[in-house]
Design brief:
The chain has about 160 residues and is α+β, with helices and mostly antiparallel strands. The chain is built from 3 helices and 7 strands, in the order ββββαβββαα.
């Protein structure tokens, strides 16, 4: 993970949720938000007074109606649009939750293999940078290791332009 200062910058969080089968949660943004119809990992802006973990939980619930547990910060970057992004591993709070997109923000949510994510047209540049930096961890037999396993009950593991 790089050492970046977020002092004075807008800040955002990104969730990296990986199932036991190695698939990662990716969303396609709606046509009415910044970066319309782009693919990315879910996430969003940190509101005043929120911690990164609180923002991650709020964003995933607002966008996908998912309850999650943030686990650890994996990576950080400054997006080309000047937003500091903090990338977090997370797990589903309940193992059998299904993403239910809020269509005003997200038009599609998919569980994809790493090789499938690389092929997505319109994948945001920060997501490509994250994948390049963190693919070895995501590709390992254990994936992103979370104490207790990867089922969502105690297991595994976007970026939002202005």
């Amino acid at each position: 993970m790089s050492c970046l200062s977020s002092a004075g910058m807008r800040r955002g969080v990104v969730a990296v949720i990986q199932r036991d089968d190695g698939r990662l949660l990716v969303v396609r943004r709606s046509a009415t938000v910044a970066a319309p119809l782009a693919y990315c990992f879910p996430g969003g802006a940190i509101e005043p007074g929120e911690t990164e973990q609180q923002a991650l939980q709020r964003e995933l619930f607002e966008e996908l109606a998912l309850r999650i547990v943030p686990i650890e910060q994996l990576w950080e970057c400054v997006a080309p649009w000047g937003v500091y992004l903090s990338w977090w591993s997370a797990r589903l709070s309940y193992p059998h939750q299904t993403p239910s997109p809020n269509l005003s923000e997200v038009i599609e949510a998919r569980w994809l293999l790493l090789s499938e994510i690389w092929q997505l047209p319109g994948l945001l540049s920060t997501n490509r940078a994250f994948l390049k930096a963190c693919s070895p961890r995501l590709e390992s037999p254990k994936g992103i290791e979370i104490p207790g396993g990867n089922r969502g009950d105690s297991g595994h593991i976007g970026d939002t332009p202005p």
